[in-house]
Recover the amino acids of this structure.
């Protein structure tokens, strides 16, 4: 089993290291992640410039690869043959914040896993639902353990084709988890606002600011599971077609 570990927070992120260390218990691990933070980058594929790759050493002394491309670029390069040995599984994370609801369209963590599935390789995204405004070093031990448990199930029981597994873990100790729940994508509530300021020369510039997003606490959803203390495991499909709408649109006359 050859596992590619990546993320969208950069190759030095502590969540990446925790994930890689846990995945090494399951097989050979190659770490390949961006050289900077690509949070909320969405699904990016770099086509108009060359990509640079270099080897670095993680804080535990293990070698890794990094690139000036996006998370999905790192996955694409790996699966296109950058590494000699075939990759069987891509695990992306551990993101320091939950990726639930509509977050998945923004998330570099999730879309890195999607890039794997597009190529025909199993893809898993792992995120930690850390508290808002948390100060200090996050503890990734529970989320890394959960990731290994889920990957073990995937190795033993397999996955349906063209499915991305999106895992979100409450910020709890392992023995405090209520369990594991298969969930559907919930509804994220964003509270964005436009902040307008002026630079020293009097020209306006803009920030998308506002309070942290919340969600609708509904049973069976990713947000609801996290609120109740459960690990949320959401199977995502890449086919975004609204089949219910096809009959309605089919009545249009042009």
């Amino acid at each position: 089993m050859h596992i590619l570990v990546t993320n969208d927070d950069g190759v030095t992120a502590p969540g990446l290291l925790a994930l890689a260390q846990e995945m090494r218990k399951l097989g050979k691990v190659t770490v390949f992640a961006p050289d900077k933070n690509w949070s909320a980058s969405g699904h990016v594929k770099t086509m108009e410039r060359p990509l640079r790759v270099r080897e670095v050493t993680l804080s535990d002394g293990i070698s890794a690869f990094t690139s000036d491309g996006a998370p999905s670029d790192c996955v694409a390069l790996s699966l296109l043959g950058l590494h000699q040995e075939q990759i069987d599984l891509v695990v992306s994370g551990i993101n320091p914040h939950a990726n639930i609801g509509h977050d998945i369209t923004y998330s570099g963590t999730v879309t890195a896993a999607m890039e794997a599935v597009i190529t025909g390789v199993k893809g898993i995204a792992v995120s930690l639902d850390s508290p808002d405004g948390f100060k200090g070093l996050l503890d990734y031990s529970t989320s890394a353990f959960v990731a290994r448990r889920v990957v073990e199930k995937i190795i033993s029981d397999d996955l349906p084709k063209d499915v991305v597994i999106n895992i979100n873990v409450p910020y709890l100790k392992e023995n405090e988890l209520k369990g594991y729940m298969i969930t559907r994508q919930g509804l994220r509530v964003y509270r964005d606002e436009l902040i307008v300021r002026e630079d020293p020369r009097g020209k306006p510039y803009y920030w998308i600011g506002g309070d942290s997003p919340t969600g609708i606490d509904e049973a069976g959803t990713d947000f609801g599971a996290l609120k109740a203390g459960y690990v949320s495991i959401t199977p995502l499909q890449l086919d975004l077609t609204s089949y219910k709408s096809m009959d309605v649109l089919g009545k249009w006359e042009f």
Summary: The domain at 2-187+216-249 is CATH 3.40.1210.10 (Stationary-phase Survival Protein Sure Homolog; Chain: A,). The first strand starts at residue 2 and ends at 6. The chain has one domain: 2-187+216-249.
